[in-house]
């Protein structure tokens, strides 16, 4: 363990110094420009050897550990650099294809996914299948060597820019709901696919609705066995959630650092400011302590676990506390971005505060997490 | 229900449901909360004149009548300078003001006293030798205002002045807005003729107290509507083969939302029923109390509504997000919970009247 | 309505001035002494015409309204005078006997109940029947002209001092659970009755466990019809809850007044004290506003309603906020009653803070109230 | 699990489960939290000597070893001057102290620095001309103490002095206690010989930091046990024909309790793993952070436990009530959440080191 940690420290030093020499791009607000910049950035990261770090070398990765990948994620955040645009592909879809894919799928899809040539989106949620994901209704019917797909997905990040979609579809409407789902790899250029961005409360427009109207998908694009899609999706979601928690933790720490720097420059040091920053700091220390445990679990190779739900709630709480405290420091001037109360850049903190409210919904609502904790971790009887 | 107060509120509710909700509201919000046609329409309807004295062609209702009407403004998320257009002509009997408002031309309230804890960020205005000098960095609807009501400080205490935004020395700068139903501007007063005082320190305290009460009522109505919409949603939305409203965890959040919204509505009703006859000091404590509670509770109700409506509540298309952002904008306007709890506590401990620290 | 209110104002003035001339007793902490003092006090109140105010004159009451009764309750609190010891009899059992009792029951029991000669206790809750009161298991079996009662009750106030017990028993174990319950009036001197006080976290010892071991109860002591006890109990509980809420509200206001007086005498006026008192005051104003609505409902003669559950939660919140804020002002000196931080009498505030934690449990837990509100007031579907 | 730290904690847990829980604890609590036999027993077991240097016949473990042990003290609601008997001889190498503690004779820590916001209520001690003067109004276990460790202020900053309670000028008055597992006294020092200083300002900061850390660990264990007991209860207790733990509202409260207790335990673990090697300033911030969170969270967990255990949880017989009252007593000892959030915020904003305002 000590050897690994020493190695990680060296690796971190190397990442940090190389990153310091790179031109970290500014991310434009306008959607298409943002996508273009982030895609170029992914190519830079790929060339640097910082994508697919934990993937096998034969899949085009670096053959290192998830801990190394985490180091890169953290250093990117610390350098105020964006993450690669293809995170869904890199963290969720790629590992699934690597594990469950055919030789053809791995050969054809993984290299382009890794380099950022192909951006992937994730067609899981539906308007009527949110918390109850397994009730999804998008149908795929076999017709010769193809599946014909019809239905609607929602909350699909970057779908309007993506080349590929990892799509959960119902292939057996007669089976129990978890047992009739298959995992298809769908070319977004196929006739019948339409993606429409949805504007969020924050002003962001990354999420899309995606409509599938008799879209024909070749049978070789089925990932794993027919009707076995649910377990594939669940398998990789576990790792992705842990990774997302760890990334978000560093983002929160950087946010607090930035806010403190703004307050310091302004000279704000009254009791109200102190109390808010104190509360935020404490919440982030709890999150930091929790993630040490998560890292240890990841390093030990643990997969999805009900402990992920504890992580998620600790993260929600830290993130919502942090941004609520910062937003509170804006006072009545929250309404006027441009005026900088106590030196705070209110446009950023208002955006982040609104975004933090969604933290207890996406990736499994706080209610779902509490159910999981109560039943699977604490052993309380099902209702 | 022979109470005329409820009649006004019912009429407002009915009109807004018919003529504002839906496309009209979407259009007004899309314009940043200011639509001169809509403002003129409300002027024609006489809504701004409800509490204006009959001697000035108003309806002469007591100020408390405005409370239930503002609750409807909150319920329907009515955009525009309602507070300024309704309250200022009722409190300040200035011809300039009443004429402007009668046509739907908006007044702006240039008052550094919207806060105790951000005084240096908000700015201040000083009166000396009959001239006004200073800047207020956040003024609702300043860019559109056709008349400015300025609260200034001087060695004789605070006073109120009605100023033409086109007068020499007045500059109004546009600001971006994070409130979907209000615009904002910065008002710079550089040696501006103050004219006669339209009100003294007591008038300033009454003005701010009524602003707090009406904002609280607006937040109360806003919270009420969030409960209503959430109930519709959780009855209709099914997950795991049943309405989400049948899950106990969802029920308990809904019940908490209802208790909060109902408690806030009760508080507003009780405060209004005492307000017209109250002394200026008592009114100040009551208003701080009610606004503190509204500012605490309304955002919580919105947050629970967002939680229960899930992802869809977060889309800009779903107006819940606009309700929430408006609630957050009003939260700190004329005192956030922390500031006002301190004011109320000071008053209860006997350091009353709750002092107007600004200007 | 205005006439009634004017009349109430006059009545209040009269109560207040007469009360000012009375010797309001100090209430000793020691249990037996306390009981004795409170019982004498009940006699004083009876002689003053302040008990059974809303009862009919023929039942020994004053024939006034519940609003008049409320006035006396409030004025007693404001005068820092104790309530009559026999509240359970006066507010719950008495009205039930008046409404459902036989001529014999009314004649024999009501006058002694009213004067405080007989103290009543309420044997409803059981160790295994708390939130689910209707699942109570205390059995009563008919044997000739008697019922033979066996079982255990709990949370029975003053049972060890009471002469009579209003007892819910199961008389038909085969019936649906609400339908097999009868309401018995039990002489506590009957052989086989044992009461044992339970010490509370607050140090109070008013609540008892009561054991019934083949206790023989004459048939004429059955209140109402056999197996109709549930609806009798529910009928009077509604009114009693509203009355209790209103009484508790005044107690909370008096507590805040007392605390503020202590703080003022000490000269405490720092921001922390202000914030705490501000929060407490606001919570009590919400409660005060809510009770105006409750009074209007009572004055209009409304019975039990799901609105009572809203009242209860508003009361819980106000009471728990108030005492949490006061306790918070004790800081580390909470642990040392006798030292008076900021001038506060910490022994009282610690006691009241602990007691306030029970507010969300007794009289129907907060969870039960939320169920009622969601299902009966908001119309959400049963689970 | 080769970590010796866990071994100590496991051994302590095992011993307490066997020899303390139940009748023994009831007896100790019934005596107000002080039982000399029990204290001597723990001394014999060597529990007080865990972090005392080997050169002084201690076990020489780092101070962080005490954290998991204090979590067990919290879990088992161990009464007595654990903090004083364990921490003081480890930090202050004073013969008098170490001899006393070795026999189970309790030390008391006469420190006005338990709070920032009640300084005038707590009192203070001043050192001048080698003499101690002042009063501290709340000192744990002062009536039983056989040695007093006094933190005094002077123009040269704070310092630590070891004083015999029988020395001339020392008066100890009994106080009532609202903590079921501690006694309290008032200590009056009227011109008492100070003797040599046993520690300077850095030592005072270290002492208070470690007190905060260990109290946080104790609160963490206490919260953990409240979760454990609640889970047993809600699995067994039936209402409406099913275990109450099968109701979603109950499940969600239980889940929240677990998340809070687990988060606090993680925070303590992380803080301890950094503490031994930390600078005195970093340690101060970490300790304030951890104690603030513990003081906030542990009472909440207790309150949820009371809510889920219903009426039975409120009886004195059910030890949950003792856990809660102890948690509330520790909540404000060496800083309640409000005080400590301000300290932490000041440190993060760069006004570090978090200043010791007292004495």
TrEMBL record, chains A, C:
Q: Which family does it belong to?
A: Belongs to the acyl-CoA dehydrogenase family.
Q: Which residues form the Acyl-CoA dehydrogenase/oxidase N-terminal domain?
A: 9-117
Q: Which cofactor does it need?
A: FAD
Q: What is the name listed in the Swiss-Prot or TrEMBL entry for this protein?
A: Acyl-CoA dehydrogenase family protein
Tell me the ranges covered by the Acyl-CoA oxidase/dehydrogenase middle domain, including all copies.
Answer: 121-215
| Domain Acyl-CoA dehydrogenase/oxidase C-terminal: from-to ranges | 227-378
Q: Which InterPro entries match?
A: Acyl-CoA_Oxase/DH_mid-dom, Acyl-CoA_Oxase/DH_mid-dom_sf, AcylCo_DH-like_C, AcylCo_DH/oxidase_C, AcylCoA_DH/ox_N, AcylCoA_DH/ox_N_sf, AcylCoA_DH/oxidase_NM_dom_sf, Mycobact_Acyl-CoA_DH
Q: Which UniProt keywords apply?
A: FAD, Flavoprotein, Oxidoreductase
Q: Where are the transmembrane segments?
A: none
Source species, domain of life? Bacteria
Species assigned in the record: Actinomycetospora atypica
Under the heading Pfam families, the entry gives: Acyl-CoA_dh_1 (PF00441), Acyl-CoA_dh_M (PF02770), Acyl-CoA_dh_N (PF02771)
TrEMBL record, chains B, D:
Is this entry keyworded Transmembrane? no
The cofactor required is: FAD
This entry's Enzyme Commission designation comes to 1.-.-.-
SUPFAM superfamilies per the record?
Acyl-CoA dehydrogenase C-terminal domain-like (SSF47203), Acyl-CoA dehydrogenase NM domain-like (SSF56645)
Q: Which domain of life is it from?
A: Bacteria
What are the protein's GO molecular function terms?
A: oxidoreductase activity
Where's the Acyl-CoA dehydrogenase/oxidase C-terminal domain?
Answer: 203-336
Task: Return the InterPro entries for the record.
Answer: Acyl-CoA_Oxase/DH_mid-dom_sf, AcylCo_DH-like_C, AcylCo_DH/oxidase_C, AcylCoA_DH/ox_N_sf, AcylCoA_DH/oxidase_NM_dom_sf
Q: Which UniProt keywords apply?
A: FAD, Flavoprotein, Oxidoreductase
Q: Which Pfam family, any one of them, does this sequence belong to?
A: Acyl-CoA_dh_1
Family in the record: Belongs to the acyl-CoA dehydrogenase family.
Q: Which PANTHER family match?
A: ACYL-COA DEHYDROGENASE (PTHR43884), ACYL-COA DEHYDROGENASE FADE28 (PTHR43884:SF20)
In Swiss-Prot or TrEMBL terms, this protein is called: Acyl-CoA dehydrogenase family protein
Q: Which organism is it from?
A: Actinomycetospora atypica
């Amino acid at each position: 363990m000590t050897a690994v940690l020493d190695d990680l420290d060296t690796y971190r030093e190397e990442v940090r110094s190389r990153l310091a020499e790179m031109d970290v791009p500014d991310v434009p607000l306008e959607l298409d420009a943002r996508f273009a910049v982030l895609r170029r950035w992914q190519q830079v990261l790929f060339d640097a050897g910082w994508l697919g770090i934990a993937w096998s070398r034969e899949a085009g990765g670096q053959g290192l550990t998830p801990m190394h990948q985490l180091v890169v994620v953290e250093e990117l955040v610390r350098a105020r650099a964006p993450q690669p645009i293809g995170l869904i592909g890199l963290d969720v879809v790629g590992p699934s294809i690597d594990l469950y894919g055919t030789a053809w799928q791995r050969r054809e899809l993984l290299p382009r996914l890794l380099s950022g040539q192909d951006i992937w989106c994730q067609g899981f949620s539906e308007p009527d299948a949110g918390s109850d994901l397994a009730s999804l209704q998008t149908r795929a019917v076999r017709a010769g060597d193809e599946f014909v797909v019809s239905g609607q997905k929602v909350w699909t990040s970057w779908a309007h820019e993506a080349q590929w979609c990892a799509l959960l579809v119902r292939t057996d409407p007669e089976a129990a709901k978890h047992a009739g789902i298959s995992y298809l790899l769908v070319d977004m250029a196929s006739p019948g696919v339409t993606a429409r961005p949805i504007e969020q409360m924050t002003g962001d427009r990354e999420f899309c609705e995606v409509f599938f109207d008799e879209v024909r998908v070749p049978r070789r694009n089925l990932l794993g066995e027919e009707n076995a899609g649910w377990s594939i999706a669940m398998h990789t979601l576990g790792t992705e959630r842990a990774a997302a928690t760890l990334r978000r933790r560093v983002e929160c720490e950087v946010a607090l650092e930035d806010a403190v720097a703004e307050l310091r420059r302004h000279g704000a040091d009254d009791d109200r400011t102190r109390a808010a920053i104190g509360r935020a700091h404490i919440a982030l220390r709890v999150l930091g302590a929790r993630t040490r445990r998560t890292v240890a679990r990841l390093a030990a190779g643990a997969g999805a676990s009900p402990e992920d739900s504890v992580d998620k709630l600790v993260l929600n709480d830290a993130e919502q506390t942090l941004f609520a405290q910062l937003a509170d420091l804006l006072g009545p001037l929250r309404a006027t971005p441009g005026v900088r109360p106590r030196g705070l850049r209110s446009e950023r903190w208002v955006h982040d505060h609104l975004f933090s409210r969604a933290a207890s919904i996406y990736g499994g609502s706080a209610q779902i997490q509490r159910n999981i904790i109560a039943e699977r971790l604490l052993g309380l009887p099902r209702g | 229900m022979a109470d005329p107060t409820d009649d006004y509120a019912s009429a407002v509710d009915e009109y807004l449901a018919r003529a504002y909700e839906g496309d009209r509201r979407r259009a007004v919000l899309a314009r940043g909360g200011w639509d001169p046609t809509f403002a003129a329409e409300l002027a024609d309807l006489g809504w701004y004149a409800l509490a204006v004295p009959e001697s000035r062609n108003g309806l002469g209702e007591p100020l408390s009548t405005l409370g239930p009407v503002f609750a409807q403004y909150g319920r329907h998320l009515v955009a525009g300078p309602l507070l300024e257009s309704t309250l200022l002509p009722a409190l300040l009997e200035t011809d300039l003001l009443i004429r402007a408002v009668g046509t739907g031309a908006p007044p702006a309230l240039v008052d550094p006293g919207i806060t105790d804890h951000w005084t240096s960020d908000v700015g201040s205005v000083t009166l000396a030798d009959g001239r006004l000098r200073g800047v207020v960095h956040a003024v609702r609807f300043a860019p559109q205002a056709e008349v400015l009501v300025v609260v200034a400080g001087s060695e004789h205490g605070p006073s109120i002045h009605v100023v033409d935004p086109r007068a020499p020395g007045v500059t109004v700068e546009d600001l971006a807005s994070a409130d979907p139903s209000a615009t904002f501007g910065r008002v710079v007063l550089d040696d501006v003729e103050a004219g006669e005082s339209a009100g003294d320190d007591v008038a300033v305290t009454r003005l701010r107290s009524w602003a707090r009460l009406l904002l609280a009522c607006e937040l109360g109505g806003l919270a009420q509507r969030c409960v209503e919409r959430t109930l519709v949603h959780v009855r209709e939305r099914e997950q795991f083969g049943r309405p989400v409203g049948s899950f106990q965890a969802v029920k308990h959040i809904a019940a908490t939302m209802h208790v909060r919204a109902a408690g806030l509505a009760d508080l507003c009703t009780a405060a209004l029923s005492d307000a017209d006859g109250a002394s200026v000091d008592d009114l100040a404590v009551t208003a701080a109390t009610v606004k503190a509670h509204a500012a605490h509770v309304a955002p919580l109700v919105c947050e629970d509504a967002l939680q229960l409506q899930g992802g869809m509540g977060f889309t800009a298309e779903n107006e819940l997000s606009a309700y929430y952002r408006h609630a957050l904008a009003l939260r700190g306007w004329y005192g956030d919970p922390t500031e006002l709890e301190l004011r109320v506590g000071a008053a209860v401990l006997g350091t009353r009247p709750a002092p107007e620290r600004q200007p």
